[in-house]
Design a protein that fits this description.
The protein is of the alpha+beta class. It folds into two domains: 2-196, Dna Ligase, domain 1 (2-Layer Sandwich), CATH 3.30.1490.20; 201-252, 2-Layer Sandwich (D-amino Acid Aminotransferase, Chain A, domain 1), CATH 3.30.470.20. 19% of the residues lie in helices and 19% in strands. It has helices at 10-14, 64-79, 118-127, 164-176, 226-230; strands at residues 2-4, 54-55, 88-90, 135-140, 157-161, 189-194, 200-205, 217-222, 237-241, 247-252. A five-stranded antiparallel sheet has the order 1-7-8-9-10. Strands 2-3-6-4-5 form a five-stranded antiparallel sheet. The protein is globular.
Amino acid sequence: MTTVDERHGDGARDGDDQGGVPRMGDPLASRFPRTAPEAPRLAPEIPRLTAEAVPLSDPRATRIPFAGSKAAHLARAALAGLPVLPGFVVPHSEPGEHLKEPPYSDWSGDRAGDGDLEGLRRAWRELSADGTRPLVVRSSSPQEDTQESSLAGQFASVLDVQGWHEFRAAVRTVLDSAHRPDGTVAPMAVLVQPMLAARVGGVMFGADPVEGRTDRRLVSAGRAGPNSRAGGEQPGKIWGLGRRGRVLRRDRERKAR
């Protein structure tokens, strides 16, 4: 699920600051230099979550097994020169990786002291401007947004998160959503970015979700945030695109009842 900013282009990439939201060109984004991506690998079966905050500019953030699909795709998009909001990912550890800090699965609420989460709190303080800028806390599982399945809406995202304690609770909510009804636990990382009050929002599918064709892209967008678009709460338009971005068809959606 991708937020589309009407200021897309030079203005959105390097230009004016609206709503206090940082972009890749401002001082907050100085922690996000361009780095070369690594090829994705298969995800581990069971997540081991760390208290580390990894900027989207970090080479590890481009690895799906480490950062999950959403975070890795955003890191690669930023590398390609697309306008991407700065942020960080709370990864799960890969097999054989030593945990330097307690896993997130061991803490909830006040069970972990702030000393255990010092690095994460520094990243939260910087991205949120010491709690004055709201954040969005999203799932980023290697099982999401794959060529086989999007799993849209299967895991939790928390919007408009304000304050350190609310942030911790949001992370816990996302992690808890990794527990599936069949008793399995999905590998789960947590993606954190500034909350964007978008005038235009939408969803882009890397393959046609109806026909299953991988030679087409499907964009659904409208005058609302991306969550209302994904949930069918607001009507919008659909564009079918070819591999090189040529518009193949246009349709108007109806509001869900």
